[in-house]
Specification:
Layout lengths: L8 H13 L9 H8 L19 H15 L12 H18 L1 H14 L4
Length: 121
């Protein structure tokens, strides 16, 4: 299952079919389209309206989409549509930690150069 939101049903359906068959599309290889192609499902692909959700802006729609993704266990979504500010900070900390681990030698060299150029400080 895949969950998404739209304000233009027909355009969204067309876009899904387009990305599924168009190998030049940057989205061609996301899990949803791979699954559809592997199961000869382009003609079987169905979009079902889960709810009409009144929202004030795109961010609010993305938040609700994420809630529905979790409720329905939508495993074909490649990315979370909504991440809270707290979640963004946590992701940033994790990415920063990974960067430091992958670039230990570069960081050592930078610190060595900095100390040599700033001996007086």
């Amino acid at each position: 299952m895949y969950v998404g939101h739209t304000t233009n049903w027909d355009k969204r359906k067309w876009t899904h079919k387009y990305h599924c068959i168009n190998g030049n599309s940057s989205k061609h290889n996301v899990k949803l389209y791979q699954m559809i192609r592997e199961n000869d499902g382009r003609e079987l692909f169905k979009m079902i309206e889960v709810e009409k959700y009144p929202c004030n802006d795109k961010r609010e729609a993305e938040k609700r989409e994420c809630e529905v993704m979790k409720e329905l266990n939508a495993i074909l979504n490649s990315i979370e549509s909504y991440v809270s500010e707290e979640g963004m900070k946590e992701k940033g900390k994790i990415q920063h930690k990974k960067y430091r681990e992958l670039n230990k030698e570069k960081q050592k060299e930078r610190m060595k150069q900095y100390r040599e150029l700033n001996k007086e400080k």
